[in-house]
Amino acid sequence: GNYHEYAYGPVFDPGGNLWVTLNCTIGKAPSGGGFEEKAFPWRGWSMMKPRHGNLVPVSA
Fold it and tell me: pLDDT 10s digit of each residue in the chain, 60 long?
């Protein structure tokens, strides 16, 4: 891993929705060995999970 790869949250908003952000790696990822950026499709996004619903990608 990379020291920039961490998440903020989860945090609940006043409406009961769960929020989380997933940070990206800084720098070039090593190639090969199964470690490809496509393996982590939601890095760099904020996401919201309603109390009664599916996870919603909100911003990148």
Answer: 556 666 777 899 999 999 998 887 666 655 555 555 556 678 888 999 999 999 999 988
pTM comes to 0.65
As a whole number of angstroms, the distance between CA 36 and CA 48 comes to 25
Task: Report the domain count for the chain.
Answer: 1
Q: What are phi and psi of 21, to 5 degrees?
A: -125, 145
CA distance 11 to 25: 22
The residue range of the domain holding 41 is: 7-59
Asked if residue 35 is part of any domain, the answer here is yes
Round the CA-based radius of gyration of the chain to a whole number and report it.
14
Within a domain: 1 = no
Q: Is position 41 within any domain? A: yes
